[in-house]
Specification:
The structure is a single chain. The protein is α+β, with helices and mostly antiparallel strands. It folds into three domains: 83 residues, Rossmann fold, CATH 3.40.50.20; 146 residues, ATP-grasp fold, B domain (D-amino Acid Aminotransferase, Chain A, domain 1, 2-Layer Sandwich); 62 residues, Dna Ligase, domain 1, CATH 3.30.1490. It has eleven helices and 13 strands. Strands 8, 9, 10, 11, 12 and 13 form a six-stranded antiparallel β-sheet that branches. Strands 4-7-5-6 form a four-stranded antiparallel β-sheet, with helices on one face.
């Protein structure tokens, strides 16, 4: 426990992204948890722009951002809170924007020497799929660059599926990422801290569907979480190292969650970093924290303390 004195906390939730419903669920659980720790908590739905005046005049000590996707995880709400002079949980403007942009973050990962699957980026629909397949192979991952929770994402199994997958992704974003598919265990690692960083235990995700899609993330029973991940001890340590290095490379603060693939040979590929991981009953970061002995209310309290630390 952080031992924080009671604070006035604004929990920002809802919003207008494709992940609104998940954000509302996250916000409700965070509100309850912080209330259990004695804080005075106000839930604020940012879909109504009147929320800005509520933040400006509400006398809050800190904001807990429970907004996923656009206008929450991409640096925009962080910029507003900077202007208002209100401390907030999680990463700042630049780190949030970099992590949300899957192409920008891949360039950062590469510069930091972190392995990530080969990729191509598109700002318009290609006429043919042949050059993509020739460059990256027949099995691919196609996803919008600036969406979360696997919104608009597809696994492609052959050339005939490439263009339909691109069309789906372009419905959600003007830029689309096509990645070579890397087979292996899906392992995620949470990181807590500002300057002194703690990697949480490795968590292996086993979805009921082919990949960890929206339903797998948020519908109870649609995925299993195995802690520690069923990979070698060396691979687990490498996943934790990669998660911390990615957190540092992007300039994250407070918390992050790195998603990786561990191949059967034990190689670790970094897929992406989430700066505002889900905080629902089926979410990964709270499960990993619990395995490290940090119960959910204490996790929320600790994140508030980290926000005030800066």
């Amino acid at each position: 426990m952080s031992g924080l004195a009671p604070l006035r906390v604004a929990v920002l939730m809802g919003g207008c992204s494709a992940e609104r419903e998940v954000s509302l669920h996250t916000g409700e659980q965070v509100t309850t948890a912080l209330g259990e720790r004695g804080h005075s908590v106000t839930s604020i739905d940012t879909a109504d722009l009147g929320f800005i005046e509520r933040l400006r005049t509400g006398g809050f000590d800190v904001a807990f951002i429970c907004l996923h996707g656009r206008f929450g995880e991409d640096g925009t709400i962080q910029g507003l809170l900077e202007i208002l002079g209100l401390p907030y949980v999680g990463s700042g403007v630049l780190a949030s924007a970099l992590a949300m942009d899957k192409i920008a973050s891949k360039h950062i990962f590469a510069a930091a020497g972190l392995a990530t699957p080969p990729f191509l980026a598109f700002t318009a629909m290609p006429e043919i799929e042949a050059p993509i397949v020739a460059t990256l192979g027949e099995k691919l991952v196609v996803k919008p660059v600036n969406e979360g929770s696997s919104v608009g994402m597809s696994i492609v199994h052959g050339p005939a599926e490439v263009l339909p997958a691109l069309e789906l992704a372009f419905r959600h974003d003007g830029t689309v990422l096509v990645e070579a598919f890397v087979a292996g265990a899906e392992v995620t690692v949470g990181v807590l801290g500002n300057d002194d960083l703690e990697a949480l235990p490795t968590l292996e995700v086993v979805p009921e569907h082919e990949f960890y899609d929206y339903e797998s993330k948020y519908v109870p029973g649609m995925s299993r979480h195995i802690i520690p991940a069923r990979v070698s001890e060396a691979a687990r340590m490498e996943c934790q190292r990669v998660a911390i290095e990615a957190h540092r490379a992007l300039g994250c603060r407070g918390m992050s969650r790195a998603d990786t693939i561990v191949t059967p040979e034990g190689e670790v590929y970094l897929l992406e970093v989430n700066t505002i991981p889900g905080m629902t009953s089926t979410s990964l970061l709270p499960d990993a924290a619990r395995a490290a002995g940090i119960e959910f209310p204490d996790l929320c309290d600790r994140l508030v303390a980290l926000a005030l630390e800066r």
